[in-house]
User: Fold this.
Amino acid sequence: MFTDIIELRRKLFKLPNSNYPVSILPEYSVPFVIYLLAHNPSFSRINHKSLLTCRDCLLFYIEPLISKADNYLFLGKMFELIKQYVDAQSPDDLEINKNIYAVCDLASAILHEKVDKSTVGNFPGEVMLPTMLFTRRNKGAPTNTARYLPPDFNPFPGKVSGR
Assistant:
């Protein structure tokens, strides 16, 4: 049923003379999922148990979105972009922002696990984020390339880390 809703939204957006905003596309719901997971009270500390629970939630949500295999680059860019922003409600809350970045790293790991290696590259278009959730980091802040998952964390236990 979730997959049917995803397909319906994509079809509506592709209609000729469609006045639907880009935000109708199901991929634009992902920032809300990341935000909600990062603010979940059970995710107050980044540890293996909470990360595995978060991974399961992300898998449930992301797998239907990537079933058509035409939006990997878009989602990858979205995850990278979110890490260049801070929580709009609590921009100075380091713990919340670290949680957001950890969820993005986890979503990226899921994407890389599911992606066909031949589709790796950069998304050429623009990705927008909901301003009610995320705001740009301070001007002059360095690019956030840090990894927020524990070094010994494997999001897919049973698989050899690093493929």
